[in-house]
């Protein structure tokens, strides 16, 4: 069973890999341009993951191009696998299910991502200086940061949601535990207190029964007396 810590760690590793990929965005764009030229496919934008896969498999003759295209496809596959693992962490609700569904759609091999655009704080689209380049490659450079952001949002929300569910139970357990632990002590103290109270009561009875009678003053007729 996958737990939240494993999901967070897996996402962290993917983020690190993506940061390396992002630093090589120019290399990625150059690889796409060369493979598109080889494929005689210079008009339409790069609009799907499977399109990149096709360029790599059938129109890539440069080791550097192959490496960077492989890196992109590998990150997409890792994100797809992580999305499946996230589903097993906890049942989720409409918010988490919606975030995962969005990730599943974006990571679908044939999903049209040509209109996708990453916004602040991601500058990936701004790195594409020409409007024509943004039209051709804006979607393919945006998919990874957008999916990663959705997964990070899923983790943040899920942590709060899980804690919200668990903490009341823990609070109940914590309330029950001291009660169960202190109950015997309370019973013991009561049982110890009863003999003391009984002994004191018996002692008062003993004093009342054995107290010497006080001598009575001699009778005197009513009236004033000097003392």
If you average the pLDDT, what whole number results? Answer: 80
- Helix tally? 6
Q: Total number of β-strand segments?
A: 0
From N to C, what is the helix and strand string?
HHHHHH
Biggest sheet, open or closed, and with what strands and sense?
Answer: none
Runs in which pLDDT lies below 50 for 5 or more consecutive residues are: 164-198
Query: What spatial form do the alpha-carbon principal axes imply?
Result: elongated
What radius of gyration results from the CA coordinates?
40 Å
Distance between the termini: 100 Å
The helix/strand class is: mainly alpha
Helix content: over 70%
Strand content: under 5%
Please explain how this structure is put together:
With 227 residues, this protein is mainly alpha-helical. It is built from six helices and no strands. It has helices at 4-23, 25-38, 49-59, 63-86, 94-106, 131-210. The longest helix has 80 residues, at 131-210. Mean pLDDT is 80; it is low at 164-198.
